[in-house]
Amino acid sequence: MALHLKRGNKFETFGTTLPNKTLLKPNEMQTVMQGKALFLQGEKDSSPVSILAQTIKDYSGKDIGIVEIVVDRSFFSNALSSLQLILLGLGIMGIVIGVAISSLIARGITAPIKRVADSFEEIADGDGNLSVRLQIEGGNETARLARAFNHFVERIQKTVETTALSATHLAPAVENLSLSVEKGHHTLVQQQQDIEQIATAVNEMSATVHEVANNTSLAADATRQADQDTIKGKQVVGDAISVINEVAAEMEHIAEVISRVNDDSLRIGGVLDVIVGIADRPTCLHLTQQ
């Protein structure tokens, strides 16, 4: 413990039990004189100590100095060190126990998951044994996972069985389809051959068409010449018709003349008959007179 009195801007140690009179620095003393109590930690003779510094007042309430109290805290430091060691040991023990508990918990969680993974691998890599089921224990999340796995595998098994049954029924249809495809292939080959023949015929027809086109051109020229000859023939026929009409008119005129001549002949015949009759009468008279 030490008592320091302020003398102007300096401090004078009035009394102390400390070997070096004080453990405070001048700036720390000035801080205390401003009304701020200090609690520091330091060392004295290689031993940890705690330092409390605070102002003291006279009867009028004026700050006249600083009282410095130094407390050996070796016991507390040793106790604190022992406590730290104990806490460290407890901490390490807690970590070990925590790791062990975590391992147990993790094993309890991962073991069912591992069983599920092994079951999946057995289904995927093996013969596809869909009769595998997991054992359900308890009602935790792993049990829910096992239950979901069993339900999933059961549905897959039903689907596979249905698919296998459908495949059995589809086998004859597939065989018939294969026969139909083969027949269709033969039909396509035949059609291809027919198409090749048709293509050959089309080529021949094309050549024929070209030849017909050439002949048609020649026929067109002949047709034009025939048209011209027809026109000339029409003119000749028209002239012939005109002549025939004239001849017909002449023939009608001749017929009329012949008819008149015939009539005149009949009249002449009558006259001749009369003449003949008259000529015969004198002979009759002469015969009578004799």
DSSP, total strands: 5
Percent of residues in helices comes to: over 70%
Mean model confidence by pLDDT: 76
- Largest sheet: spatial strand order: 2-1-5-4-3
Model description:
The chain is of the alpha+beta class. Among the domains are: 2-72, no CATH class; 74-175, no CATH class. Helix content is 72%, strand content 14%. It has a five-stranded antiparallel β-sheet, sandwiched between helices. A hairpin with a 5-residue loop joins strand 4 (47-57) and strand 5. The longest helix is centred in the C-terminal third of the chain and has 149 residues, at 141-289. The model has no long low-confidence stretch (mean pLDDT 76).
Summary of the model, kept short:
By secondary structure, the protein is an alpha+beta fold. It has helices spanning about 25-35, 75-125, 140-290; strands at about 1-5, 10-15, 40-45, 45-55, 65-70. The mean pLDDT is about 75.
Give the SSE map:
Blueprint: E1 2-7, E2 10-16, H1 26-33, E3 38-44, E4 47-57, E5 63-72, H2 74-125, H3 141-289
Antiparallel strand pairs: 1-2, 1-5, 3-4, 4-5
Question: Notable features of this structure?
Answer:
290 residues; alpha+beta; five-stranded antiparallel sheet; 3 helices
